[in-house]
Amino acid sequence: LIRLIRAGCKHRHKHTLIKLSPSVGAAANMSTLLVNRPQYSCLRELGLSEDNDGVYNGSWGGQGQVVTSYCPANNEPIARVRQATMAEYEETVQKAQDAWKVWADVPAPKRGEVVRQIGDALRGKIKALGSLVSLEMGKIYVEGVGEVQEYVDVCDYAVGLSRMIGGPILPSERPGHALIEQWNPVGLVGIITAFNFPVAVYGWNNAIALICGNVCLWKGAPTTPLTSVAVTRIVAEVLERNHLPGAICSMTCGGADIGTAMAKDERVGLLSFTGSTQVGKQVAMMVQERFGRQLLELGGNNAIIVFEDADLNLVVPSAVFASVGTAGQRCTTTRRLMLHESVHDDVVERIAKAYKQIRIGDPWEPSTLYGPLHTKQAVQQYLAAIEQVKQQGGTLVCGGKIMDRPGNYVEPTIITGLPHDAPIVHTETFVPILYVLKFKTEDEAFAWNNEVKQGLSSSIFTKDMGRVFRWLGPKGSDCGIVNVNIPTSGAEIGGAFGGEKHTGGGRESGSDSWKQYMRRSTCTINYSKDLPLAQGIKFE
Protein backbone atom coordinates (compact mmCIF):
# COMPACT_ATOMS: atom_id res chain seq x y z
CA LEU A 1 0.00 0.00 0.00
CA ILE A 2 2.71 2.49 0.94
CA ARG A 3 4.45 1.73 -2.36
CA LEU A 4 1.20 2.39 -4.21
CA ILE A 5 0.70 5.65 -2.36
CA ARG A 6 4.21 6.84 -3.06
CA ALA A 7 3.71 5.96 -6.70
CA GLY A 8 0.84 8.40 -6.72
CA CYS A 9 -2.16 6.11 -6.20
CA LYS A 10 -2.77 7.25 -2.68
CA HIS A 11 -5.17 4.94 -1.07
CA ARG A 12 -6.63 1.71 -0.41
CA HIS A 13 -9.48 1.69 2.05
CA LYS A 14 -13.09 2.32 1.22
CA HIS A 15 -16.52 1.77 2.46
CA THR A 16 -19.59 1.48 0.35
CA LEU A 17 -23.13 2.08 1.01
CA ILE A 18 -25.66 -0.37 2.07
CA LYS A 19 -29.05 0.65 2.92
CA LEU A 20 -31.71 -1.45 4.50
CA SER A 21 -35.08 -0.75 3.16
CA PRO A 22 -38.41 -2.25 4.12
CA SER A 23 -38.98 -5.34 2.14
CA VAL A 24 -40.19 -6.37 -1.14
CA GLY A 25 -40.53 -3.77 -3.82
CA ALA A 26 -40.32 -3.94 -7.54
CA ALA A 27 -36.68 -2.90 -7.38
CA ALA A 28 -35.81 -5.82 -5.17
CA ASN A 29 -37.58 -8.64 -6.97
CA MET A 30 -35.82 -11.91 -7.52
CA SER A 31 -34.71 -11.20 -11.07
CA THR A 32 -32.75 -8.11 -10.04
CA LEU A 33 -31.14 -9.37 -6.83
CA LEU A 34 -27.36 -9.56 -7.06
CA VAL A 35 -27.40 -12.89 -5.24
CA ASN A 36 -28.84 -14.45 -8.41
CA ARG A 37 -26.12 -13.17 -10.73
CA PRO A 38 -23.27 -15.55 -11.66
CA GLN A 39 -20.56 -12.97 -11.00
CA TYR A 40 -21.60 -12.93 -7.33
CA SER A 41 -21.44 -16.69 -6.81
CA CYS A 42 -19.53 -16.05 -3.58
CA LEU A 43 -22.87 -15.22 -1.97
CA ARG A 44 -24.22 -18.70 -2.68
CA GLU A 45 -20.94 -20.19 -1.47
CA LEU A 46 -21.63 -18.53 1.89
CA GLY A 47 -25.11 -20.06 2.07
CA LEU A 48 -26.98 -16.88 1.17
CA SER A 49 -30.13 -16.83 -0.95
CA GLU A 50 -32.83 -14.37 -1.99
CA ASP A 51 -34.43 -14.50 1.47
CA ASN A 52 -32.32 -15.18 4.56
CA ASP A 53 -33.10 -15.88 8.20
CA GLY A 54 -31.85 -13.14 10.50
CA VAL A 55 -32.06 -15.04 13.79
CA TYR A 56 -29.82 -17.85 15.03
CA ASN A 57 -29.95 -19.46 18.46
CA GLY A 58 -29.15 -23.06 17.62
CA SER A 59 -31.79 -22.99 14.91
CA TRP A 60 -32.50 -20.43 12.21
CA GLY A 61 -35.51 -18.16 12.15
CA GLY A 62 -36.76 -14.65 11.66
CA GLN A 63 -40.38 -13.52 11.81
CA GLY A 64 -39.82 -9.78 11.92
CA GLN A 65 -39.54 -7.06 9.30
CA VAL A 66 -38.07 -8.09 5.96
CA VAL A 67 -35.32 -5.74 4.84
CA THR A 68 -33.31 -5.52 1.65
CA SER A 69 -29.58 -4.99 1.68
CA TYR A 70 -28.23 -2.78 -1.10
CA CYS A 71 -24.80 -2.42 -2.63
CA PRO A 72 -23.56 1.11 -1.90
CA ALA A 73 -21.50 1.35 -5.07
CA ASN A 74 -24.53 1.12 -7.37
CA ASN A 75 -27.59 0.99 -5.08
CA GLU A 76 -28.64 -2.37 -6.52
CA PRO A 77 -30.39 -4.85 -4.17
CA ILE A 78 -28.32 -7.83 -3.04
CA ALA A 79 -30.73 -10.00 -1.03
CA ARG A 80 -33.30 -9.84 1.77
CA VAL A 81 -33.12 -10.67 5.49
CA ARG A 82 -35.94 -11.43 7.93
CA GLN A 83 -35.18 -9.66 11.18
CA ALA A 84 -35.94 -10.77 14.73
CA THR A 85 -39.14 -10.05 16.61
CA MET A 86 -39.04 -9.24 20.31
CA ALA A 87 -40.42 -12.71 21.02
CA GLU A 88 -37.51 -14.22 19.10
CA TYR A 89 -35.09 -12.00 21.01
CA GLU A 90 -36.49 -13.32 24.28
CA GLU A 91 -36.25 -16.91 23.08
CA THR A 92 -32.66 -16.35 21.94
CA VAL A 93 -31.56 -14.91 25.29
CA GLN A 94 -33.10 -17.87 27.12
CA LYS A 95 -31.34 -20.34 24.83
CA ALA A 96 -28.07 -18.46 25.26
CA GLN A 97 -28.38 -18.72 29.04
CA ASP A 98 -28.94 -22.47 28.74
CA ALA A 99 -25.97 -22.77 26.39
CA TRP A 100 -23.76 -20.95 28.90
CA LYS A 101 -24.33 -23.72 31.44
CA VAL A 102 -22.67 -26.09 28.99
CA TRP A 103 -19.94 -23.77 27.73
CA ALA A 104 -18.81 -22.60 31.18
CA ASP A 105 -17.98 -26.20 32.10
CA VAL A 106 -15.66 -26.61 29.11
CA PRO A 107 -12.02 -26.04 30.21
CA ALA A 108 -10.53 -22.83 28.84
CA PRO A 109 -7.92 -24.58 26.64
CA LYS A 110 -10.70 -26.69 25.12
CA ARG A 111 -12.66 -23.52 24.46
CA GLY A 112 -9.53 -22.24 22.77
CA GLU A 113 -9.53 -25.28 20.51
CA VAL A 114 -13.04 -24.45 19.35
CA VAL A 115 -11.97 -20.86 18.67
CA ARG A 116 -9.01 -22.22 16.69
CA GLN A 117 -11.44 -24.15 14.52
CA ILE A 118 -13.51 -20.99 14.00
CA GLY A 119 -10.37 -19.25 12.76
CA ASP A 120 -9.63 -22.12 10.37
CA ALA A 121 -13.20 -22.08 9.07
CA LEU A 122 -12.90 -18.36 8.39
CA ARG A 123 -9.62 -18.97 6.56
CA GLY A 124 -11.42 -21.39 4.28
CA LYS A 125 -14.02 -18.78 3.35
CA ILE A 126 -11.82 -15.70 3.46
CA LYS A 127 -12.11 -14.77 -0.23
CA ALA A 128 -15.87 -15.30 -0.39
CA LEU A 129 -16.49 -13.47 2.87
CA GLY A 130 -14.14 -10.66 1.89
CA SER A 131 -16.06 -10.31 -1.37
CA LEU A 132 -19.34 -10.06 0.53
CA VAL A 133 -17.93 -7.33 2.78
CA SER A 134 -16.80 -5.44 -0.31
CA LEU A 135 -20.16 -5.84 -2.02
CA GLU A 136 -22.44 -5.12 0.92
CA MET A 137 -20.43 -2.69 3.00
CA GLY A 138 -18.44 -1.05 0.24
CA LYS A 139 -14.80 -1.60 1.18
CA ILE A 140 -12.37 -2.46 -1.56
CA TYR A 141 -11.87 -6.20 -1.88
CA VAL A 142 -8.39 -6.29 -0.35
CA GLU A 143 -9.71 -4.53 2.74
CA GLY A 144 -12.68 -6.88 2.96
CA VAL A 145 -10.31 -9.83 2.96
CA GLY A 146 -8.08 -8.04 5.45
CA GLU A 147 -10.98 -7.57 7.81
CA VAL A 148 -11.72 -11.30 7.79
CA GLN A 149 -8.02 -11.92 8.36
CA GLU A 150 -8.24 -9.71 11.43
CA TYR A 151 -10.92 -12.00 12.89
CA VAL A 152 -8.65 -14.96 12.08
CA ASP A 153 -5.71 -13.25 13.80
CA VAL A 154 -7.77 -12.58 16.92
CA CYS A 155 -8.79 -16.25 16.97
CA ASP A 156 -5.11 -17.25 16.87
CA TYR A 157 -4.36 -14.79 19.65
CA ALA A 158 -7.27 -16.08 21.74
CA VAL A 159 -6.10 -19.69 21.42
CA GLY A 160 -2.86 -18.87 23.23
CA LEU A 161 -4.68 -16.65 25.68
CA SER A 162 -6.95 -19.54 26.66
CA ARG A 163 -3.98 -21.14 28.44
CA MET A 164 -2.88 -17.92 30.15
CA ILE A 165 -5.91 -16.14 31.59
CA GLY A 166 -6.04 -16.07 35.34
CA GLY A 167 -5.10 -14.13 38.42
CA PRO A 168 -2.07 -14.10 40.70
CA ILE A 169 -1.43 -15.82 44.00
CA LEU A 170 -0.70 -12.96 46.40
CA PRO A 171 1.30 -13.01 49.64
CA SER A 172 -0.93 -13.13 52.70
CA GLU A 173 0.05 -11.37 55.92
CA ARG A 174 -1.61 -14.18 57.88
CA PRO A 175 0.18 -17.48 58.52
CA GLY A 176 -1.48 -20.49 56.96
CA HIS A 177 -3.51 -18.41 54.51
CA ALA A 178 -3.51 -18.14 50.71
CA LEU A 179 -4.70 -15.05 48.86
CA ILE A 180 -5.64 -15.54 45.21
CA GLU A 181 -7.53 -13.80 42.42
CA GLN A 182 -10.14 -15.91 40.66
CA TRP A 183 -11.48 -14.84 37.26
CA ASN A 184 -14.83 -16.12 35.98
CA PRO A 185 -16.93 -15.33 32.90
CA VAL A 186 -19.64 -12.68 33.08
CA GLY A 187 -22.07 -15.03 31.31
CA LEU A 188 -23.84 -13.52 28.31
CA VAL A 189 -21.94 -10.91 26.29
CA GLY A 190 -24.05 -8.73 24.02
CA ILE A 191 -22.18 -7.44 20.97
CA ILE A 192 -23.54 -4.54 18.90
CA THR A 193 -21.30 -3.71 15.94
CA ALA A 194 -21.13 -0.89 13.39
CA PHE A 195 -21.33 -0.86 9.60
CA ASN A 196 -17.73 0.11 8.94
CA PHE A 197 -16.16 -3.10 10.31
CA PRO A 198 -18.96 -5.69 10.05
CA VAL A 199 -16.62 -8.66 10.61
CA ALA A 200 -13.55 -7.55 12.56
CA VAL A 201 -15.23 -5.84 15.51
CA TYR A 202 -17.43 -8.86 16.12
CA GLY A 203 -14.31 -11.02 15.90
CA TRP A 204 -12.45 -8.94 18.51
CA ASN A 205 -15.27 -9.46 20.96
CA ASN A 206 -16.39 -12.95 20.03
CA ALA A 207 -13.04 -14.75 20.12
CA ILE A 208 -11.93 -13.24 23.43
CA ALA A 209 -15.35 -13.58 25.07
CA LEU A 210 -15.54 -17.26 24.10
CA ILE A 211 -12.21 -18.33 25.56
CA CYS A 212 -13.17 -16.50 28.77
CA GLY A 213 -16.19 -18.81 29.06
CA ASN A 214 -18.93 -16.47 27.88
CA VAL A 215 -21.64 -16.95 25.31
CA CYS A 216 -22.35 -14.21 22.76
CA LEU A 217 -25.43 -12.50 21.35
CA TRP A 218 -24.67 -10.44 18.25
CA LYS A 219 -26.65 -7.62 16.69
CA GLY A 220 -24.78 -6.40 13.66
CA ALA A 221 -25.42 -3.12 11.89
CA PRO A 222 -28.84 -3.10 10.23
CA THR A 223 -27.17 -2.00 6.99
CA THR A 224 -24.85 -5.04 6.77
CA PRO A 225 -27.16 -7.95 7.70
CA LEU A 226 -25.90 -10.37 5.06
CA THR A 227 -22.39 -10.21 6.49
CA SER A 228 -23.79 -10.97 9.96
CA VAL A 229 -25.70 -13.96 8.61
CA ALA A 230 -22.73 -15.31 6.65
CA VAL A 231 -20.30 -15.03 9.57
CA THR A 232 -22.79 -16.67 11.93
CA ARG A 233 -23.25 -19.57 9.49
CA ILE A 234 -19.51 -20.22 9.53
CA VAL A 235 -19.30 -20.09 13.33
CA ALA A 236 -22.45 -22.21 13.77
CA GLU A 237 -21.01 -25.02 11.64
CA VAL A 238 -17.99 -25.22 13.95
CA LEU A 239 -20.18 -25.43 17.04
CA GLU A 240 -22.29 -28.15 15.43
CA ARG A 241 -19.22 -30.22 14.53
CA ASN A 242 -18.15 -30.06 18.16
CA HIS A 243 -21.63 -31.07 19.39
CA LEU A 244 -22.03 -27.79 21.23
CA PRO A 245 -25.19 -25.67 21.54
CA GLY A 246 -25.48 -23.23 18.66
CA ALA A 247 -26.77 -20.58 21.05
CA ILE A 248 -23.20 -20.17 22.31
CA CYS A 249 -22.92 -17.74 19.38
CA SER A 250 -26.39 -16.32 18.82
CA MET A 251 -27.48 -13.61 16.40
CA THR A 252 -30.52 -11.35 16.19
CA CYS A 253 -30.65 -9.02 13.20
CA GLY A 254 -32.70 -5.93 13.90
CA GLY A 255 -32.81 -2.25 14.56
CA ALA A 256 -33.02 0.04 17.56
CA ASP A 257 -35.65 -2.13 19.28
CA ILE A 258 -33.26 -5.06 19.58
CA GLY A 259 -30.37 -2.82 20.61
CA THR A 260 -32.46 -1.15 23.30
CA ALA A 261 -33.59 -4.52 24.62
CA MET A 262 -29.98 -5.67 24.91
CA ALA A 263 -28.95 -2.48 26.71
CA LYS A 264 -31.76 -2.80 29.25
CA ASP A 265 -31.56 -6.57 29.73
CA GLU A 266 -30.11 -7.50 33.13
CA ARG A 267 -29.28 -10.96 31.78
CA VAL A 268 -26.64 -9.39 29.51
CA GLY A 269 -23.54 -9.46 31.70
CA LEU A 270 -21.53 -7.19 29.42
CA LEU A 271 -22.70 -5.08 26.51
CA SER A 272 -20.05 -4.20 23.95
CA PHE A 273 -21.21 -1.36 21.72
CA THR A 274 -19.38 0.07 18.73
CA GLY A 275 -20.90 3.10 17.03
CA SER A 276 -21.41 6.82 17.23
CA THR A 277 -20.83 8.86 20.37
CA GLN A 278 -24.43 10.07 20.27
CA VAL A 279 -25.93 6.57 20.34
CA GLY A 280 -23.19 5.35 22.67
CA LYS A 281 -24.28 7.87 25.30
CA GLN A 282 -27.82 6.53 25.15
CA VAL A 283 -26.57 2.96 25.45
CA ALA A 284 -24.34 3.89 28.38
CA MET A 285 -27.20 5.45 30.30
CA MET A 286 -29.47 2.45 29.76
CA VAL A 287 -26.79 -0.01 30.86
CA GLN A 288 -25.73 2.12 33.83
CA GLU A 289 -29.33 2.44 34.98
CA ARG A 290 -29.27 -1.29 35.70
CA PHE A 291 -25.66 -1.15 36.99
CA GLY A 292 -24.56 -3.32 34.09
CA ARG A 293 -21.17 -3.56 32.44
CA GLN A 294 -20.45 -1.79 29.18
CA LEU A 295 -17.60 -1.67 26.72
CA LEU A 296 -17.89 1.37 24.48
CA GLU A 297 -15.94 1.96 21.25
CA LEU A 298 -17.20 5.28 19.93
CA GLY A 299 -15.95 8.14 17.76
CA GLY A 300 -12.60 9.79 17.22
CA ASN A 301 -11.52 13.23 16.03
CA ASN A 302 -8.00 12.08 15.37
CA ALA A 303 -4.96 14.22 14.60
CA ILE A 304 -1.59 13.83 12.92
CA ILE A 305 0.99 16.41 14.03
CA VAL A 306 3.90 17.10 11.68
CA PHE A 307 6.94 18.87 13.13
CA GLU A 308 9.64 20.75 11.26
CA ASP A 309 12.06 17.80 11.45
CA ALA A 310 9.59 15.22 10.14
CA ASP A 311 10.41 12.86 7.27
CA LEU A 312 7.91 14.08 4.67
CA ASN A 313 8.33 10.86 2.69
CA LEU A 314 6.59 9.19 5.63
CA VAL A 315 4.16 12.01 6.32
CA VAL A 316 2.48 12.22 2.93
CA PRO A 317 1.51 8.54 2.44
CA SER A 318 0.55 8.27 6.11
CA ALA A 319 -1.71 11.30 6.02
CA VAL A 320 -3.35 10.26 2.75
CA PHE A 321 -3.94 6.68 3.89
CA ALA A 322 -5.35 7.72 7.25
CA SER A 323 -7.59 10.50 5.94
CA VAL A 324 -9.01 8.98 2.76
CA GLY A 325 -8.88 5.29 3.67
CA THR A 326 -12.30 3.67 3.95
CA ALA A 327 -13.64 6.91 2.50
CA GLY A 328 -13.06 8.59 5.84
CA GLN A 329 -15.34 6.16 7.67
CA ARG A 330 -12.95 4.61 10.17
CA CYS A 331 -13.15 5.58 13.80
CA THR A 332 -9.37 6.08 13.54
CA THR A 333 -9.52 8.22 10.38
CA THR A 334 -7.29 11.31 10.51
CA ARG A 335 -9.62 14.31 10.51
CA ARG A 336 -7.13 16.99 11.63
CA LEU A 337 -3.67 17.43 10.10
CA MET A 338 -1.55 19.84 12.13
CA LEU A 339 1.47 21.14 10.24
CA HIS A 340 4.35 23.18 11.59
CA GLU A 341 4.40 26.55 9.85
CA SER A 342 7.76 25.77 8.24
CA VAL A 343 6.45 22.74 6.32
CA HIS A 344 2.77 23.68 5.97
CA ASP A 345 2.71 24.83 2.35
CA ASP A 346 4.95 22.03 1.09
CA VAL A 347 2.90 19.28 2.75
CA VAL A 348 -0.44 20.72 1.62
CA GLU A 349 0.81 20.85 -1.97
CA ARG A 350 2.04 17.25 -1.86
CA ILE A 351 -1.11 15.86 -0.27
CA ALA A 352 -3.40 17.76 -2.63
CA LYS A 353 -1.48 16.31 -5.58
CA ALA A 354 -1.84 12.83 -4.11
CA TYR A 355 -5.59 13.28 -3.58
CA LYS A 356 -6.05 14.09 -7.25
CA GLN A 357 -4.36 10.81 -8.21
CA ILE A 358 -6.54 8.52 -6.07
CA ARG A 359 -8.19 5.85 -8.19
CA ILE A 360 -11.92 5.97 -7.55
CA GLY A 361 -14.21 3.14 -8.63
CA ASP A 362 -16.15 0.02 -7.77
CA PRO A 363 -14.77 -1.43 -4.54
CA TRP A 364 -14.45 -4.97 -5.93
CA GLU A 365 -12.23 -3.82 -8.83
CA PRO A 366 -8.56 -4.60 -8.03
CA SER A 367 -7.30 -1.16 -9.06
CA THR A 368 -9.77 0.82 -6.93
CA LEU A 369 -8.46 2.70 -3.90
CA TYR A 370 -11.49 4.78 -2.94
CA GLY A 371 -15.19 3.91 -2.92
CA PRO A 372 -18.52 5.43 -1.91
CA LEU A 373 -19.93 6.51 1.40
CA HIS A 374 -22.11 4.01 3.19
CA THR A 375 -25.50 5.71 2.91
CA LYS A 376 -27.29 8.59 1.27
CA GLN A 377 -27.56 10.14 4.74
CA ALA A 378 -23.75 10.19 4.90
CA VAL A 379 -23.68 12.08 1.61
CA GLN A 380 -26.00 14.69 3.09
CA GLN A 381 -23.77 14.94 6.17
CA TYR A 382 -20.82 15.53 3.86
CA LEU A 383 -22.64 18.33 2.04
CA ALA A 384 -23.76 19.89 5.32
CA ALA A 385 -20.17 19.86 6.59
CA ILE A 386 -18.91 21.52 3.41
CA GLU A 387 -21.52 24.25 3.84
CA GLN A 388 -20.43 24.82 7.45
CA VAL A 389 -16.81 25.00 6.31
CA LYS A 390 -17.70 27.82 3.93
CA GLN A 391 -19.73 29.66 6.54
CA GLN A 392 -16.88 29.44 9.06
CA GLY A 393 -14.26 30.77 6.65
CA GLY A 394 -12.52 27.64 5.43
CA THR A 395 -10.86 27.24 2.04
CA LEU A 396 -11.42 24.23 -0.22
CA VAL A 397 -8.05 23.02 -1.48
CA CYS A 398 -9.66 20.13 -3.35
CA GLY A 399 -12.91 18.19 -3.32
CA GLY A 400 -16.15 19.41 -1.84
CA LYS A 401 -18.64 17.93 -4.30
CA ILE A 402 -20.73 14.84 -5.01
CA MET A 403 -19.36 12.74 -7.86
CA ASP A 404 -21.41 12.22 -11.01
CA ARG A 405 -21.71 8.44 -10.96
CA PRO A 406 -24.01 5.76 -9.48
CA GLY A 407 -23.67 5.14 -5.77
CA ASN A 408 -22.86 7.47 -2.91
CA TYR A 409 -19.55 8.86 -4.10
CA VAL A 410 -18.16 12.16 -2.87
CA GLU A 411 -14.83 13.81 -3.55
CA PRO A 412 -12.12 13.41 -0.92
CA THR A 413 -11.68 16.89 0.48
CA ILE A 414 -8.93 19.04 2.00
CA ILE A 415 -9.76 22.21 3.97
CA THR A 416 -7.37 24.96 5.08
CA GLY A 417 -7.79 28.34 6.72
CA LEU A 418 -9.94 27.37 9.70
CA PRO A 419 -8.89 28.07 13.30
CA HIS A 420 -8.07 25.04 15.43
CA ASP A 421 -11.17 25.57 17.55
CA ALA A 422 -13.67 26.16 14.74
CA PRO A 423 -16.95 24.34 15.52
CA ILE A 424 -16.75 22.19 12.39
CA VAL A 425 -13.16 21.18 13.19
CA HIS A 426 -14.33 19.97 16.59
CA THR A 427 -17.17 17.99 15.03
CA GLU A 428 -16.48 14.39 14.04
CA THR A 429 -18.06 14.01 10.60
CA PHE A 430 -17.78 10.45 9.33
CA VAL A 431 -16.79 11.50 5.82
CA PRO A 432 -13.51 12.12 3.91
CA ILE A 433 -12.85 15.73 4.96
CA LEU A 434 -9.37 16.65 6.22
CA TYR A 435 -8.87 19.90 8.16
CA VAL A 436 -5.32 21.24 7.85
CA LEU A 437 -4.17 23.46 10.73
CA LYS A 438 -0.95 25.51 11.03
CA PHE A 439 0.89 25.60 14.38
CA LYS A 440 4.05 27.21 15.75
CA THR A 441 5.10 25.37 18.94
CA GLU A 442 5.03 21.91 20.44
CA ASP A 443 2.91 23.00 23.38
CA GLU A 444 0.39 24.52 21.00
CA ALA A 445 0.14 21.36 18.90
CA PHE A 446 -0.21 19.03 21.89
CA ALA A 447 -2.92 21.26 23.35
CA TRP A 448 -4.86 21.29 20.08
CA ASN A 449 -4.65 17.52 19.87
CA ASN A 450 -6.24 17.17 23.31
CA GLU A 451 -8.87 19.91 23.12
CA VAL A 452 -11.50 17.86 21.25
CA LYS A 453 -14.02 15.73 23.13
CA GLN A 454 -12.88 12.41 21.72
CA GLY A 455 -9.64 10.66 22.57
CA LEU A 456 -9.12 7.70 20.28
CA SER A 457 -6.03 7.91 18.06
CA SER A 458 -3.18 10.36 17.50
CA SER A 459 0.25 10.49 15.90
CA ILE A 460 3.26 12.78 15.60
CA PHE A 461 5.98 12.84 12.96
CA THR A 462 9.36 13.87 14.33
CA LYS A 463 12.97 12.72 14.79
CA ASP A 464 13.33 14.41 18.19
CA MET A 465 13.42 11.63 20.81
CA GLY A 466 12.79 14.04 23.65
CA ARG A 467 9.63 15.18 21.92
CA VAL A 468 8.60 11.56 21.34
CA PHE A 469 8.68 10.77 25.03
CA ARG A 470 6.96 14.01 25.97
CA TRP A 471 4.22 12.97 23.52
CA LEU A 472 3.93 9.57 25.18
CA GLY A 473 4.02 11.02 28.69
CA PRO A 474 1.40 12.53 31.02
CA LYS A 475 1.47 15.94 29.31
CA GLY A 476 1.37 14.50 25.81
CA SER A 477 -1.50 12.90 23.94
CA ASP A 478 -4.58 12.00 25.97
CA CYS A 479 -5.69 9.35 23.48
CA GLY A 480 -5.90 5.58 23.83
CA ILE A 481 -3.72 5.15 20.73
CA VAL A 482 -0.58 7.29 20.67
CA ASN A 483 1.63 6.77 17.62
CA VAL A 484 4.93 8.08 16.31
CA ASN A 485 5.80 8.28 12.61
CA ILE A 486 2.87 6.13 11.48
CA PRO A 487 -0.79 6.90 10.61
CA THR A 488 -3.61 7.12 13.14
CA SER A 489 -5.32 4.10 11.59
CA GLY A 490 -4.18 0.52 11.08
CA ALA A 491 -3.84 -0.82 14.64
CA GLU A 492 -2.48 -4.32 15.30
CA ILE A 493 -4.56 -6.87 17.20
CA GLY A 494 -1.92 -7.54 19.87
CA GLY A 495 -2.44 -4.21 21.61
CA ALA A 496 -5.54 -3.00 23.41
CA PHE A 497 -7.77 -0.98 21.09
CA GLY A 498 -9.87 1.90 22.39
CA GLY A 499 -9.87 5.48 23.56
CA GLU A 500 -10.65 7.98 26.27
CA LYS A 501 -13.22 10.72 26.94
CA HIS A 502 -16.13 10.64 24.46
CA THR A 503 -14.57 7.63 22.74
CA GLY A 504 -15.97 5.62 25.61
CA GLY A 505 -13.01 4.22 27.54
CA GLY A 506 -13.47 0.62 26.44
CA ARG A 507 -10.65 -1.66 25.30
CA GLU A 508 -10.91 -4.58 22.89
CA SER A 509 -8.62 -7.06 21.16
CA GLY A 510 -5.17 -7.58 22.72
CA SER A 511 -3.12 -6.91 25.86
CA ASP A 512 -5.28 -7.39 28.98
CA SER A 513 -8.57 -6.50 27.28
CA TRP A 514 -9.79 -9.99 28.19
CA LYS A 515 -10.37 -8.76 31.73
CA GLN A 516 -13.40 -6.78 30.60
CA TYR A 517 -15.12 -10.03 29.66
CA MET A 518 -14.66 -11.56 33.12
CA ARG A 519 -15.49 -10.84 36.73
CA ARG A 520 -12.80 -10.92 39.42
CA SER A 521 -13.04 -12.38 42.90
CA THR A 522 -10.43 -12.01 45.63
CA CYS A 523 -10.31 -15.27 47.56
CA THR A 524 -8.71 -15.88 50.95
CA ILE A 525 -8.22 -19.51 51.94
CA ASN A 526 -7.38 -20.51 55.50
CA TYR A 527 -5.58 -23.85 55.54
CA SER A 528 -4.40 -23.54 59.16
CA LYS A 529 -6.11 -24.37 62.44
CA ASP A 530 -5.95 -20.76 63.66
CA LEU A 531 -8.05 -17.70 62.86
CA PRO A 532 -5.76 -14.65 62.76
CA LEU A 533 -7.39 -11.42 61.55
CA ALA A 534 -5.92 -8.97 59.08
CA GLN A 535 -4.28 -5.76 60.28
CA GLY A 536 -3.44 -7.53 63.57
CA ILE A 537 -6.95 -7.02 64.96
CA LYS A 538 -7.77 -8.97 68.13
CA PHE A 539 -11.40 -9.96 68.64
CA GLU A 540 -11.44 -12.17 71.72
Automatic annotation (TrEMBL):
GO terms for molecular function: betaine-aldehyde dehydrogenase (NAD+) activity; L-aminoadipate-semialdehyde dehydrogenase [NAD(P)+] activity. It holds the Pfam family Aldedh. Signal peptide: none annotated. InterPro entries: Ald_DH/histidinol_DH, Ald_DH_C, Ald_DH_CS_GLU, Ald_DH_N, Aldehyde_DH_dom, ALDH7A1-like. SUPFAM superfamilies: ALDH-like. The active site is at E297. This is Alpha-aminoadipic semialdehyde dehydrogenase. The lineage of its organism: Eukaryota, Metazoa, Chordata, Craniata, Vertebrata.
